[in-house]
Amino acid sequence: MQSTPVKSEQIRFAQKYDYARAVDYYHRFNRSPRKRFLNWLEQCMAKRGLTMANMPTHILDIPSGTGRFWQTLHHNSHVKLHAADFNSAMIDVGFEKRDAQLTQKMQGAVASAFSLPFPDNSFDSIFCMRFIHHINLEDDRMQLLRELARVTADTVCISSWIDDTGIKAQSRLKKEKSRKANGHYDKFVHQHQQIIQEFTNAGFELIGYTDLLPHLSPWRLYVLRKKHITPPIKLSTVEYVCPLCKGTLTNDLAQKQFTCHHDKLAFPMHGKLPMLTQRDAIKLT
Ligand SMILES: C[S@@+](CC[C@H](N)C(=O)[O-])C[C@H]1O[C@@H](n2cnc3c(N)ncnc32)[C@H](O)[C@@H]1O
Ligand SMILES: [Zn+2]
Q: Which CATH number is 7-232 given?
């Protein structure tokens, strides 16, 4: 298999969640009053994002992790929510442990945010929470943002650590400066001006932003609108495309896999989840 050009797809955090760690992540935000308060603030921030994005109804949550935002994103009964993450264990745990009334209406897939297996303009909005602060390389951030711009028909809500949010961001930036050059780091504070420029270069304009806890927390949620908006597809069931060539996939029910005849690749199923990444693809002979 060809190696992926996305360096951030190889970084340690992308692989770190096996089943036990995914269960640990599920419980992490319920472990102490401080964590519960932080999670509550983050849900409030996501709700403000939904309002700024005009209450979208066809939503992609990537990376969904274990589904921390699923309840919030289901802001009314017409919402169609699709979850995607690079690690199947994270989605498995979310589908097992979250409210079945929610999850039975949802679709899920294993996917990379850098090469999404969805057609252009598939969703009204994409939520991308706690992801881009892991990505230090501008080229990789651009690849992510261009994919989000391709797949949304309207808005993207994306959270990150940002330099001008207050004391916590400043102290994290100080720590970043004193880090050893050869150490492995997977979380970064981005500069507001630079990230806005990157959003623009990827084809977005800024609707607005909202901070988790002004002056104290480094988290900010940006709400972006695609510059050239197109009518969303709004299918009740999301259809997939090949994550590499974006061509049609054949759903081979007997073999329990999706096939791209152009690339001669098969994408296997993991339970009910199609595994639509270059990492999981099997070369057809
Ligand atoms: C910090 S968690 C955030 C999950 C969720 N948004 C939340 O806030 O709870 C980061 C997630 O990114 C996922 N991930 C890592 N690399 C990815 C990639 N290339 N594409 C999609 N998800 C990825 C990990 O599996 C993990 O679930
Ligand atoms: Zn293909």
A: 3.40.50.150
